[in-house]
User: Which sequence fits this backbone?
C-alpha cells in the first residue's frame, strides 16, 4: 500500500511540474496601445564568412525576428554602429521578451544580434 501511495505522489508531482512549466512558457498576447511605438536598437555581429556584411545581416535578422511580434514594423536602418527599427503599436513585455530572444539567439547562421535598447512611446 505504501508503494502505491508513493507512486501516486510521484505521478502527481510530475503532472504538477509539467502544468507549471507549460504555464510559465506559454506565449501570451500583449494588449495593443493604439498610437504607440516601440523603437528597437540593436547591433549585429557576423563572422568573416558572412559574405554580404553587416547591412544585409541586420536586415535579414530584423526581417526574421520582427515576425515574432504583431504590428507594423519598419525596416532596420543604420544608426551609427547600431541599427534601429520600430514596431507600431508598441509591444508589451511578452513581445519584448520574444523579440530580444530572437535577436540575441543564433537565429541565422553566422549572425548574432545584441539588443541595446527597447523603448516604447
Assistant:
Amino acid at each position: 500500500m505504501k508503494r502505491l501511495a508513493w507512486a501516486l505522489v510521484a505521478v502527481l508531482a510530475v503532472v504538477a511540474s509539467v502544468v507549471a512549466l507549460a504555464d510559465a512558457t506559454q506565449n501570451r498576447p500583449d494588449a495593443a496601445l493604439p498610437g504607440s511605438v516601440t523603437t528597437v536598437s540593436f547591433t549585429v555581429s557576423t563572422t568573416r564568412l558572412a559574405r554580404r556584411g553587416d547591412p544585409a545581416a541586420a536586415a535579414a535578422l530584423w526581417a526574421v525576428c520582427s515576425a515574432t511580434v504583431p504590428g507594423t514594423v519598419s525596416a532596420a536602418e543604420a544608426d551609427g554602429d547600431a541599427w534601429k527599427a520600430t514596431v507600431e503599436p508598441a509591444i508589451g513585455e511578452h513581445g519584448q521578451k520574444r523579440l530580444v530572444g530572437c535577436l540575441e539567439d543564433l537565429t541565422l547562421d553566422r549572425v548574432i544580434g545584441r539588443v541595446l535598447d527597447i523603448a516604447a512611446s
